[in-house]
Specification:
Elements lengths: L3 H18 L5 H15 L5 H33 L1
Length: 80
């Protein structure tokens, strides 16, 4: 299976080869604009944004687990 990065790199390489052989100088600019527009529609995030959100989710998961343990202990004390 081809990774998305490899797919984009291959596409970029092919486009660069096409530009080198093409008399139209603004093809690269148009392709970059087209790709940027496509990526914007995909609602992508950067690796940094993803890592920040992942860290927040991990911290929240840990907090929830601690709260669940505390609630279970309190429920146990109340039932005795």
């Amino acid at each position: 299976m081809i990774k998305p990065n490899e797919l984009f790199e291959d596409f970029q390489k092919n486009v660069q080869e096409l530009i080198a052989k093409s008399p139209a100088a603004d093809i690269e600019k148009n392709v970059k604009a087209f790709m940027a527009q496509g990526f914007a529609k995909m609602d992508l995030v950067t690796r940094e944004e993803f890592d920040i959100q992942r860290a927040l989710v991990d911290a929240l998961r840990e907090r929830v687990e601690k709260l669940e343990t505390t609630v279970a202990e309190l429920e146990k004390k109340l039932s005795q």
